[in-house]
Amino acid sequence: MSPIPRRNVLQAAAVAGAAAHASWLLGGTPAHAARPAGAATGAKGADGPVEITWLEDGGLGEAPGNTFGVPWPMGALKAGTPFSLGAADGTAVPVQTWPTAYWPDGTLKWTAHAVGPEAGNAASYRLTPGDAPAAPARALTVTRKGGDVVVDTGTVTARIGGDGGSLVKSVRRGSTEIARDGRLVLLRQGRIDDGDQGTQKWQRFDGDIEKVAVEQDGPVRAVVRVDGRHRRGSRGWLPFSVRLYFHAGSDAFRMLHTVTFDGDEHEDFIRGLGVRFTVPMRDEHHDRHIRLGGEGRGLLSEAVRGVTGLRRDPGAEVRAKQVRGERLPDPATWDQRVTSRLHLIPTWGDYTLAQLSADGFTVRKRTKPGHGWIAAGGGRRASGFGYVGGVGGGLSFGLRDFWRKHPAQLDVRGAATDEAEVTLWLWSPEAQPMDLRFYHDGMGQDTHAEQLEGLNITYEDYEPGFGTPYGIARTSELMFWANAATPAAETLARQAEAVQTPPQLAAPPAHLAAAGVLGALFAPVDRSTPAKARLEDHLDFLFDYYRDQVEQRRWYGFWDYGDIMHTYDADRHQWRYDVGGYAWDNSELSPDLWLWYAYLRSGRADVFRFAEAMTRHTGEVDVYHLGKWAGLGTRHGVQHYADSAKQQRISTAVYRRPYYFLTADERCGDLMHALVDSDETFLALDPLRKIRTEPYEPDPRALGIGLGTDWSGLAAAWLTEWERRGPKAERAEKKLKATMRTIARMPNGFCTGEGRYDIETGEFAEAEKKVSMSHLSAMFGQVEICAELIHLTDVEGFEEAWLQYCRLYGATRAEQQAELGGYATNLILQQGHSRLTAYAASRLKDEREKYGTRAWREFFTKDAWGYSDSSPWKTEKISGPMALVEGSGAAWVDTNTTALYGLAAIQNLALIGDLLPE
Asked: What region holds the PcRGLX/YetA-like N-terminal RIFT barrel domain (predicted)?
C-alpha cells in the first residue's frame, strides 16, 4: 500500500465454501424498484459499448491473462447476453464472459470478463453487449484423466493431481517437461527458543490433497481448485485452498494460495511455509541459468558453470551468449585452454534470496550441500521473482508482495544435478518462527467488570481465551511461466513486473456510476466549483497521507500488510501500535468502503491497489474461518485477533463486494458465501454479554441481534448470495426480506436498536415502542446496504423505516421525542452521519433542500469527531531523535475520522452535490 507508480517504474480455504457459478438459481424475482438516489439517468453508453482500459501503463505484458468486472443498469441486458471485446485498432480479442450478479428482474447487474495473451498491450478496448466473442487462436481444454485434471492452454499442458501430495504433477511445453511435482511444504517447531541456545527440532509437513474441482473450463480461462491439509504421519493440519488459473494460448499460470491456521499457537510455530517445484535440468552446465529478481527491474544473471571472468577467454561470442542465456557454440570451437579445463570450473547449484524485512534482502550461493555459502549481493526490496532452467527450457516463478509480506525467500537447489528444486517461501525458514501467541498474560482481568475497566484505560476489550488466532487465514498470489528456453533479460523483467503488479482492466468511473450499483452513492470526481475542488483536495490529501504512512511506518509483514493503524500518539510521534484498541484498525468505521468508493469515482490505480491489499487482509486475517467464531471478525487491537469483541461488523460482506465485482476474484467470493449462515454465530457468542443488564441466554427463536452493525453484516451476506444466485440464494432472500419486513413493522423501526430474531424464519419478533440509537449502528456498511436494498426491493415500510432513522439521527431531541416518544443521547460522529441526512434528502424530493442544507451543515460544522475547512490539511516533518525514521506526521488525523469524512464527502457530493454551499 505504499505508492504504486506506473508499470514501468514498479515498486504493492479450504474453509470458505464454493465460488459463484452461472448455474446458481435465483431465489425469487421481486418487483423492481425505482432508480436509486444519486444514480445517473440516461447516461450515454451505460448499457452499450464500454471503453475498458488498464489501471497502469504497459498492457498485459507477460501476464497470462486478466479478469475484470463491469456493471449494467437494471433492465438493460437480459441474462445470457453475449459480449465481444475489441482492441482500439479494431482487432477482435477473445473474451470469456459470465454473470456475477443479477438484478431482481433477472437482468444482468455485474458481468465478469476474462482475456488471455491475445489481449496484448493495447491502450484501450471496447466491450460490446450483444455481439458474439471471438474464439481463441489456441483452444484451451480441460479433461479428466483418472483422478487428475489436465489443462491444455494450447501452449503448455498442466496435469493437476487429484490426490496425494503433488498439486501440479507436471507442466509440459510440447514434448518437453518444464516442471513437475508442484507441492506445498510446511515446517513446524514445537517451542520458541527464547534463550541463547537453539534446541528446537523442525518437522516437515507436506500438502495432502483432499478434493479437486474444476470451476471453469474455458474457452479463454480455466480455474481448478485444490483443497487439502498439510500432513505428516497421522496428523493433518493447516488446511489449504489453492486455485490454479490458466488462459488460452498462455505459457504461464497463476496460483492463489490460502492457508487457515488451526493449530495451537503455544505449540505449533510455523518455521517455513512454501510452494515447491522440481525442474528437470537437461542442458550442459554452461547452458544452465539462474535468474533472481533484485530491486525494480534488476536481475542477478548467472550460469551454473560460468565462462566469463576466467583467466583464459573462451571468446567474446561465447561470453556474450552466456550472459544473454543463449545456447553456447560447441566447446570444440572455443579457445582450447578453456575447453580442456571446463571440469575445473565450479558449478553453482544452490541459490537463496532471503527478504527478512521490508528493507533488506541478501543473496548467497554455494556449489552443493556440505560446502560453504558465498555472498552474491543484496539490496533493499527484491521483486520476488526468479528463473531456473537452461537453453532447452526452464521455469520462471514469482511471489507477489514479496517484500511487503516479509519474511519471504526464494530457494534454488540442485541446479547442477539432473533435477533442480525451486521453493517460494511465503514464510522464510531463515526468519524467526511465526509466533501467534497472545501478547500479554491478562493482567488479572478475569471478570467482565475488570475487563471493562481495562477497556477504559487501554481501549482493549480483553477476555481470557478470546485472543486466539485459531481460524484466521492468509492468501498469497504466485505466478509461473513454462519457458521454451532461457528468456531474454527484457522478457524476464516484464515477467517480474507481472508478478509485482498483475495488470488489471477496468471500466471508467462514469460507467460505474451510471450503472447505479453499490447503492449509487458515488459520482465521478468533479472539480467544477471552488467548493467541490476544495473537498477533492482534502480527499486526495487524506489518501496520500495514509499511502505514505504505510511506507514510513513500515506497515508490512505476512500478517499485517493491508491494514492501517487506528490512532496517532502525538507525544511519541508514533501511531499507537502497542496500546490496546488504538493499534491495528481492523476495518473500524469502514476505511475499506472509503477506499473502494474513492476508487470507483476516480479510477486511480494507487487507490485500487491500496484497497485491494486491505480487502485481502481484512477479509482473511481479521476474520475467523474455522471454529466456533467462524463468520465473525475481531475488533481493532494490538494483534489482529487479540480483542474479545468478535462481531459481524468486521466480517461483513459489504467490505468485500466492490473487489469481488470489479475482479470476479473467487477467493473473495468464497469469503462472502461463507457468511450466509453467520446468523448462527449469535448462538455461540452474545456481542453484548459484558454490558447486558438483564439475564440473557441465546435462544434460536429469540436471538438478541442489533439492528445496526449486526443486521447490516447479515443483510450484506444475504444480499450478495441472492444476487449472485448462490446455492443458498432462496434462503438468503427469504431471511433478507423477512428481517426487512419485520424491522419495518417495529413501532420505531431502526430506532428500536435491537430485536429478537428467529433463526429459522428470519423474522424479528414484534417489539415494544422504545428508542435506542447508537453512533456506531450505521457506520459499518449499513448506509450502503440499505441504499442497495431500497433500490432492489419494494418491501413494505422498509424505506420509510430507514429514512426515519436517517432523518432523526441528526434531529433535535424535540423532533425525536415528537416522532418516537423518546430521544437518544450521545449521538456523536455527526460528520459521518451527514450522509444519512443527504440520503434522506435524495429520496424525499419535497424536502430535498431542507435535508440537503442540513446535511452539508452537519458535514461542515461537525462535532468533536470530524475535520473542517479550518483543519490543518498538512503534515509536519518529523526527524532526528524524535522518531525512528525521518518522515511526516499529522497528529490531527485519525482513521475513524478519515474513513467517515471520506465516505460522507463522497456520498454527499453524489447525492446533493448541487446543494453544496460555496
From this structure: 50-129
